[in-house]
């Protein structure tokens, strides 16, 4: 038993040293990467698809048939039109817009009027200012008169739909969640608990409505009314924005905060076609060169740890307070 104890102690010390060395190395590498914030990555999806098809045909056909098929493929001209594929998997704070703006800038530097951009969008919505900026990034594509298609395989609700409505065409999987054109805010208030424990909270403001509702002080009816008025105003802006970019909608019918599945969304003109992004891409491979554009942000070790902690904290707090969120 004494041997096992000493051996275990030795392993623990060794593991501690190894971890410490690994952390030091990671910090050194991270420091060297400080000047490089991120980089663009390009993937030729057309080439990947051709290689996949070639491998399958080689397995399924006899040598003579495969040779004839392969020769025919080589005789086909390279497509001149291009389809740029961007992915946006949005979180509550929409921090992904940082990469999106870089990707769109890169695409707009080379795209022409004959090209197309496909956004594979997935987002349940989030903060107003974040998704407002994200929608503005997509509008940059439209302003350059480049065709924009948005594909929703899972969810594009609230702020996510605010982005989707910019597109010339919206595709949705049959059971994708779409809509939720509304605004919600909720805020816990601990005033009664603090008062019960004889704790005073003093709040000082300049301007009658600098703070309408608060977490710790006592909320007033006038403050609540003003806060509700601000929510209603935000909802009106949201509705007007969606209707401007998608005039086929009966906006009062769909701007109730409800969400719908793809089948229902098609009937309500929230989407234009029931189709997954996979099916759409397969259709494009024969006529377009399909390129995926991705901006990979390089983060320092401390930033990675901080981002992970921030994400976990945000997720927890969002169950209590969703102030000024598209929902």
Automatic annotation (TrEMBL):
InterPro entries referenced in this protein's UniProt entry, alphabetically: ClpP/crotonase-like_dom_sf, Peptidase_S49, Peptidase_S49_N_proteobac, S49_SppA_C
Pfam families: Peptidase_S49, Peptidase_S49_N
Protein EC: 3.4.21.-
Peptidase S49 domain sequence ranges: 142-281
Gene Ontology, cellular component aspect: plasma membrane
Domain Peptidase S49 N-terminal proteobacteria: from-to ranges: 2-138
Main location: membrane
GO biological process: proteolysis
Keywords in alphabetical order: Cell membrane, Hydrolase, Membrane, Protease, Serine protease, Transmembrane, Transmembrane helix
Location of this chain's protein in the cell: Cell membrane
Transmembrane spans: 6-29
GO molecular function: serine-type endopeptidase activity
NCBIfam families: PRK11778.1
UniProt similarity note: Belongs to the peptidase S49 family.
Official protein name in the record: Protease SohB
Organism, as annotated: Rheinheimera tangshanensis
Lineage per the UniProt record: Bacteria, Pseudomonadati, Pseudomonadota, Gammaproteobacteria, Chromatiales
């Amino acid at each position: 038993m004494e041997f096992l104890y000493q051996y275990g102690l030795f392993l623990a010390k060794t593991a501690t040293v190894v971890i410490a060395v690994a952390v030091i190395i990671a910090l050194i590498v991270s420091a060297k990467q400080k000047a490089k914030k991120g980089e663009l990555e390009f993937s030729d999806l057309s080439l990947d698809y051709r290689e996949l098809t070639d491998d399958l045909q080689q397995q399924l056909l006899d040598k003579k048939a495969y040779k004839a098929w392969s020769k025919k493929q080589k005789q086909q001209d390279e497509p001149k039109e291009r389809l740029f594929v961007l992915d946006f998997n949005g979180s509550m704070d929409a921090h992904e817009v940082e990469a999106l703006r870089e990707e769109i800038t890169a695409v707009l530097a080379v795209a022409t009027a004959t090209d197309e951009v496909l956004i594979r969008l997935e987002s349940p919505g989030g903060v107003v200012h974040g998704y407002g900026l994200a929608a503005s990034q997509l509008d940059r594509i439209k302003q350059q008169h480049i065709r924009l298609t948005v594909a929703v395989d899972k969810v594009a609700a609230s702020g996510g739909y605010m982005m989707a409505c910019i597109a010339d065409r919206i595709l949705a999987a049959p059971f994708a969640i779409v809509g939720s054109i509304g605004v919600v805010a909720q805020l816990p208030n601990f005033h009664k608990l603090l008062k019960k424990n004889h704790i005073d909270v003093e709040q000082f403001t300049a301007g009658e409505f600098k703070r309408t509702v608060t977490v710790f002080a006592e909320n007033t009816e006038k403050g609540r009314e003003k806060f509700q008025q601000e929510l209603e105003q935000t909802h009106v802006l949201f509705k007007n924005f969606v209707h401007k970019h998608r005039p086929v909608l009966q906006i009062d019918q769909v701007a109730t905060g409800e969400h719908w599945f793809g089948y229902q969304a098609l009937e309500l003109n929230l989407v234009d076609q029931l189709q997954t992004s996979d099916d759409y891409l397969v259709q494009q491979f024969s006529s377009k060169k399909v390129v995926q554009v991705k901006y990979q942000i390089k983060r320092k070790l401390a930033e990675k740890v901080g981002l992970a902690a921030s994400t976990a904290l945000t997720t927890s707090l969002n169950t209590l307070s969703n102030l000024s969120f598209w929902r």
